[in-house]
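Look over what follows to help learners.
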Amino acid sequence: MIDWYRRRWLIEIYFRILKSGCRVESLQLSSVERLDRAIMIYLIIGWRILHVVTTGQACPNLPCDVVFDPEEWQAAWTVKYRQKPPQQPPKLGDMIRIIAGFGGFLGRKSDGFPGAKTLWEGMEKVRHYALGIVAVEPFMLTLIELWVIV
């Protein structure tokens, strides 16, 4: 019972992610089947955010590719530092702070580890950055080729 009670706070954070981050309560779908599918997707998204937060707190020195796709961490690095990402993935704790910074985390000395809210907001932006970089990449090669010809 004590172990269950210790995990209560994680469960509270998980449901906060679902309610506030994913806005599950505001879904207005026309059928139960659609609602079930949407909730299943949001459960996975909520789990991933909670997993990133807890893994980052427990093991900040792991490489960030343990929980982030290469497109995600490389896009975050590129947007943050405006330079090409390193060959080796940075530490998970550092990448979480970078991504949470996109969600409003200030990263001052007195600030603790980023919370779920700044992380879900940052991860949403990073996903958009990654999709944008992937979409523009073929055009960038063409522009570079044209520039070299001229």
Summary: The domain at 2-149 is CATH 1.10.740.10 (Transferase Inhibitor Protein From Tn5; Chain A, domain2).
